[in-house]
Amino acid sequence: MRHSDYPLSEVPLSARKGLFSTSAVLLGFTFFTATMWAGGTLGQAFPIGQLLWIILIGNLLLGIYAAALAYIACQSGLNSVLMGRFCFGEKGSKLSDFILGFTQIGWYAWGTATIALVLIRTTGMPEWLEIPLMVLFGFGFCITAMIGYRGMDWLSRFAVPAMMLFILISLFTGLVDVRGFAGLSQQTPTESMSVAAAITVIIGTFISGGTQATNWSRFAKTPKIAVIATMAAFFVGNGLMVLTGALGTMIYQQADIVDVLIAQGFVTIAVLMLFLNIWTTQDNTIYNFAVAGCNLLRTEKRRLVTVGGAAIGTVLAVGGMYNLLIPFLVLLGTFIPPMGGVIMADFWLKHKGRYPSLSSAALPDFNRRGLAAYAIGAGAAYFSPLLPPLVGVAVAAGSYAVLLRLKHATLGDSLPSTAKQ
């Protein structure tokens, strides 16, 4: 805890990490319970052959998007909220800070409540322990995030291989129970869903996470490592989560791997999987909140912001507000991807693949072209009937490219801020 993971500056080359470290942290982030639940909805709607193709295509598109941002993050040493200063302006970037931070604190509340409720249901603990457990986990899960990248790296190096082993044990047992792929092919869908809607579910569940995965891909030693680690997490890891949820629903009518393991008789493994699955996502989530909060407040005190965020998330969990937040958080997921589109267009078209040093850059308070492109992209995503996240990214990037070519007084950037960080 000697430093605070460079919340307001580029990650120096001396602090960069290798492929195993970067992959472990990112895989820990994508091993997420809600992704398995999304997979469960697909498992009810498609036969196994079609399902595998849908999972492959959806996660490939998600991985490409996240990897494109990972390349920029590693090349520049900046995360998404710091890149936002270039494409939205010093003050304009506070909009993205608020949206990203609020989304993450909401999911942190959901995760804190989920582990307490599931643990009581699984182990038969008395119900009066519900609130004490929420408080315990609400503050306990933020410890590795307080330490920073190194703390999450330590946890992920142990947790990711363990979870992979537990998932493989469960999948093998499930295939034996259903008599292999022959048995799976005899399963008939009970729900109806279009292929486009299914791909949207896969992408939409975690594309907001892909936008913020730059918090760790910027620590990669080379852009190649950043891209490979991100593809491993968002194509392979997220795909495995979707597949696990889908197969669990098809075989046991349970999407969550914890419930599936219990149904298979692996109670101890199920409890361990619950802790590791939730913890490796929770610390990443609260870390995301902290870096967004640091940029919003222009403070280097990332650990203090982390604890503050954990306190807010715990209060939301104890107050039962986490259930009310879910539809709003899913809606916000529609408005986050266009930020990535503007960031990519700004990096390649305006800055020609290389940002100037953040500390010396003369940035405006508001980059009106970037803000306008984001608004157009967000509107397109909200009203699009087909693949809203990808539509938002593409329209935002295209709008920014067009606006860069327009010379109009109302599109000019506002006066530069005098307060440089």
Descriptive report:
There is one protein chain. With 421 residues, the chain is mostly helical. The protein has one domain: Hydantoin permease, CATH 1.10.4160. 74% of the residues lie in helices and 0% in strands. It is built from 19 helices and no strands. It has helices spanning 19-30, 33-43, 48-76, 80-88, 93-123, 130-140, 143-147, 149-177, 180-185, 195-212, 214-217, 223-252, 257-263, 267-297, 302-318, 322-335, 337-350, 368-383, 388-405. The model is unreliable at 417-421 (pLDDT under 50). Keywords: Membrane, Transmembrane, Transmembrane helix. It is found in: Membrane. It is a multi-pass membrane protein. This is Cytosine permease. Belongs to the purine-cytosine permease (2.A.39) family.
Tell me the number of helical segments per DSSP (H or I, 4 or more residues long): 19
Number of domains: 1
Q: What is the helix/strand order?
A: HHHHHHHHHHHHHHHHHHH
CATH architecture classification name: Orthogonal Bundle
Structural class, judged by helices and strands? mainly alpha
CATH topology: Hydantoin permease
What portion of the residues fall into strands of 2 or more residues? under 5%
Distance between termini? 22 Å
Helix content: over 70%
Poorly predicted tracts of residues: 417-421
Structural shape: globular
